[in-house]
Every structure is written in C-alpha cells, then in structure tokens.
C-alpha cells in the first residue's frame, strides 16, 4: 500500500469506528482487525501504519466527529506530510477550500463539569497517553523477582507488590510463563482494587459484576484459602473466567445472576460475605488511554443510566455484607458522580456504615474514597472506597 492508500484506509476505518460508537457497536480494535482480515494483500507494515493513523486520529478528537475524513483533516493540520497525500492515486480525494476539520481536544465539553475536582486540565493530556503493559504475578505460584528476570525492559510497578511493567506493545501471549499461569495482564490500578479488599485466608468474598474475573483471580492468588464467588449478569463475560482460573490454578465459583432477582440468585450469601467487591459498570473514563473512542460512546443519557445502576448495585451489595464485613466499591472512572458522589449518597442512605482508609500509598483522597489517575499514579483512572458495616 502507498502512503496515500494507507491514509484512505484509515478514513474508511474511522467511518466505521464513528458509526459503531454512535450505535454502541464493536470497539475500534475489533473493527481494525476485521478490516484487515478481509484484505490479505496488506502487509504487516501497512497494517501497523494504518492502525497507528486510526488511533492517532481517535486520540486527537474529544467529540465524536461527523466523518472519518473530518478527523483525518484535523490530524493533517498538525502533520503537513499528510496533507500532501490528498489527491494522490488510491488516496483521499483532493482537499477542498475551507473543508471542515474535526477539532482537537481531550475531554468532551459536556463532560468537563462531571470530572472529579482533582482532575484539572493539566492532567487531561495524560488521559490519552498510550498505556504501558502491566502484568500481575500469580503470587500463589511465583514471585515477582522470579518473573522480572524473564522479561527484558521490565520493572516492578511503583505501587502494587504484584505488578510488572513492560513497554507499550510488548508481546507476551506466547510467553511460556503465561501458559503456565504465572501471570495475567492487569493494569496496576486494577491490581490495587484487589489489594483494597485486603483478602485473608478463610474469607468469604463475593465479586459482583465480576466480568471476566481479573480482580477475582487476583483475590484468589492473594488468599488461596478464601471462598470466592464471581457473579455477573453477562454470561459471555463470565464464561471467560473458568479457563483463566484453570490456567492459574485458582478455585473460583461463578454464578449468573438475573436482574431484578439478584438477591434471590445469591441465596446463601445475604449478610454472609466478609467482603463484597462491587466492580460496577461505569463510563470507562479512566480507561481512555486504552479505549479513546469511549469518549465518543458516552452520552448524558447513558451516564445518568449508569449512575442509577451503580446506586442500585450498591444497595444490593449492602444486603450481602455480614455485620463487621466490608463493601469495596470500584469504578474505572474519573467522574465525580460515579465515584465520590456515589459513595456520599450511599452513606446518606446507610448512616451507620463507616468509611475505612484504603490505598493510602496510592491515589488522592476524594470524598470517602481514593482516586487514581494516569497523571498522578501512572495507572488507569479508578475510584475506590472501602466501607464497613457495623456489627
């Protein structure tokens, strides 16, 4: 492919990404992979170059642009070499006078008032930086020092005692230590959520909305004698946990729960859990480094629905914690209403519950919890709070 053809391919892909973001379709990664699956003529250099163009363009625009061409025009404003490719054979059509280009930005304008007060505009660029690759060592089977010796250019994560940090785009899926279940890919921030649960041997730990179970696996490695149940409403996500647990040598029960009968489906756990981890569905604003088109998917209506759901899930979780037990609430979000505001509302409704200190070595105090951000902590953005039910 010529450079002009690569640019045209990026425009076509961006049109698909924009439509998918508008219609809640597949993510950009999947769209790019599918595009090249049907274009075998494109070599590895072509694929890499087009992919880089696509994600450079996505990261540049906070607002969902009208077309892929508009967003590439915006990118070309910063890179004159791209402007020269318009009008070339197999490339985009020639530029027209005063053709509109997508504006640059990090945070959608409507979303800026929703940010935590801790996330000032000086931190916004870091929300779109390319993230490193973090691994979590399966400490039930190996030590971090042992695995550090097996990876070039690796370093311990600054905060998590379980983590190893590798450069962006490191390839680890064929590493023998992965097949042996000695590590999982997991951002350091996500590891810290599991640490906030303070798992102990013999604990009964319930992970609600556990997804594919990354945090459940971390808890199982840290407390191998704990009883762990991972529950979710999505069968496809939950089904991914069993093979991961087998590879890690972890014993984790899974359970599919069905709204609005979650408490019925969790019979036997009401007021019986030492720890309930609510890994709540959220805006994903803390993961824009990995999913920059997430900014294009979020709408005010969707955010309101998510906040209502989070409140409901916290109310359900409160009934599952035993007296003296703990509820840990986590969202991969940097938005105040999803984090500190959500816990403030919970404590107003449950005035006897007590906020416990958590993650004092990481993040910043945000209401009754802690906020991790890419700029401050070099992790994905997370809010976490640890609450104790009175005896």
Written overview of the protein:
- This protein has 391 residues and is of the alpha/beta class.
- The chain folds into three domains: 3-105; 133-185, Alpha-Beta Plaits, CATH 3.30.70.1170; 188-388, 3-Layer(aba) Sandwich (Rossmann fold).
- The chain is built from 16 helices and 13 strands.
- The strands form two sheets. Strands 5, 6, 7, 8, 9, 10, 11, 12 and 13 form a nine-stranded mixed sheet that branches. Strands 2-3-1-4 form a four-stranded antiparallel sheet.
- Helix 1 (3-23) crosses helix 3 (44-60), helix 1 packs across helix 4 and helix 8 (188-196) crosses helix 9 (214-222).
- It is globular, with a radius of gyration of 22 Å.
- The termini are far apart.
- The model has no long low-confidence stretch (mean pLDDT 95).
Instruction: Examine the secondary-structure arrangement and name the CATH architecture of the largest domain.
Output: 3-Layer(aba) Sandwich
Count of the separate structural domains:
3
Helix content: 25-40%
Question: Helix- and strand-based class?
Answer: alpha/beta
List keywords for this structure.
391 residues, alpha/beta, Alpha-Beta Plaits, Rossmann fold, 3 domains, nine-stranded mixed β-sheet, four-stranded antiparallel β-sheet, globular
């Amino acid at each position: 492919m010529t450079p002009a053809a690569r640019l045209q391919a990026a425009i076509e892909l961006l049109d698909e990404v924009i439509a998918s973001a508008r219609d809640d379709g597949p993510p950009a990664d999947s769209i790019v992979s599918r595009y090249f699956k049907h274009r075998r003529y494109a070599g590895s250099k072509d694929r890499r170059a087009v992919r880089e163009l696509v994600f450079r363009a996505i990261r540049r625009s906070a607002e969902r642009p009208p077309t892929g061409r508009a967003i590439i025009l915006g990118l070309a404003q910063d890179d004159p070499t791209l402007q020269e490719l318009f009008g070339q054979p197999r490339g985009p059509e020639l530029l027209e006078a005063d053709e509109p280009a997508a504006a640059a930005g990090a945070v959608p304008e409507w979303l800026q008032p929703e940010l935590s007060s801790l996330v000032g505009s000086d931190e916004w660029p870091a929300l779109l930086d390319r993230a490193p690759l973090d691994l979590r060592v399966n400490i039930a089977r190996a030590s971090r020092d042992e695995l550090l010796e097996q990876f070039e250019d690796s370093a311990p994560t600054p905060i998590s005692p379980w983590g190893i940090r590798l450069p962006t785009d490191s390839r680890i899926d064929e590493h023998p230590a992965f097949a042996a279940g000695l590590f999982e890919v997991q951002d350091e921030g996500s590891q810290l959520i599991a640490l906030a649960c303070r798992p102990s041997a013999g604990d009964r730990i319930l992970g609600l909305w556990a997804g594919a179970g990354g945090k459940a696996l971390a808890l199982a490695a840290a407390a191998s004698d704990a009883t762990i149940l991972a529950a979710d409403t999505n069968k496809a996500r939950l089904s991914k946990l069993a093979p991961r647990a087998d590879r890690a040598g972890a014993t984790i029960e899974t359970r599919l729960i069905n709204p609005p009968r979650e408490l019925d489906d969790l019979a036997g756990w009401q007021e019986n859990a030492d720890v309930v981890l609510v890994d709540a569905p959220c805006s994903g604003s803390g993961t824009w480094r990995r999913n920059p088109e997430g900014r294009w998917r979020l709408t005010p209506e969707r955010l309101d629905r998510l906040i209502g759901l989070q409140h409901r899930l916290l109310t359900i979780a409160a009934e599952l914690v035993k007296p003296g037990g703990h509820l840990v609430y986590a969202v991969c979000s940097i938005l105040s209403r999803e984090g500190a505001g959500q816990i403030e509302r919970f404590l107003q409704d449950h005035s006897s519950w007590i906020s416990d200190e958590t993650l004092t070595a990481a993040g910043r105090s945000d209401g009754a919890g802690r906020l991790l951000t890419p700029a401050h902590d070099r992790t994905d953005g997370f809010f976490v709070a640890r609450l104790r039910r009175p005896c």
